[in-house]
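Input record (one chain):
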Amino acid sequence: MTAAAQASLATPGEQRLSMFSRFLEGSSRALLARSGLRRGMHVLDAGCGTGSMTLWIATQVGPRGTVTALDCSSEALETLQRQAHQAGLANIRCEQVDLGTGAALPGSADIVYSRCVLMHLQQPHMALRSLHAALRDGGHGVFEEPVLSAYRTPGDRLLWAFAVSLYTRYCAGQGIDPEYGASLRAAVAEAGFAPQSCELDFSPVPVAQAKAYIDHSLEASGRRYVDAGLIAPLALHNQRKAYVPRDSDSGRMTHFHGVTQLIARKGA
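The corresponding structure, as predicted from the sequence alone:
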């Protein structure tokens, strides 16, 4: 089955997550490279999901390195294990863990990595402390968290405004912090890390793909938004029409909302 055929069978939520991973892939890989990721290392991928970054990290550390993939979803970990087997990667170990509980994690990691996970936790400080404890002295924590109010240009803000406003209002009732990236540096320092670099990234995205991503997001989460009283079904249906790609979108670029990228060290 071709990639296009597989995509057509995916749910809107799965398509959204796949596009999200593609949008951030280049900047996330560059961030890990800057942190010193290399062959032979042991890496903890915290909140790995189905492994959008795990598989790549495993290729970078090589057969003498290891990746411990942590997630609360057994289904996500099963998908990751299948993908690892298909890719011939034997250096990935999966472990079901709820990071929000502050549970003890496998120790002596050279790098702990987490992308857009802390924002979903009721007590992210507990997860940060567990991740700090899992690092060896001199190891690095590499974190990425969103700042949905930050945009590179006014045009970018206008394109994303409706979907982001709806999502932000929904988050307010769910204990999700879509601005967690704005406080990431302080939170990481409080957990015992020594921040070394902290930058706001705006990944470039073709306008047509951005519109498709927004539409998948609205389709996947629309029922929840309606049930929460945030929008009427007809209004949601009509708004989605604004994200139908046009011929004029060809070749045009926009940027994803801001994502704080931080590298921190354990120890002085």
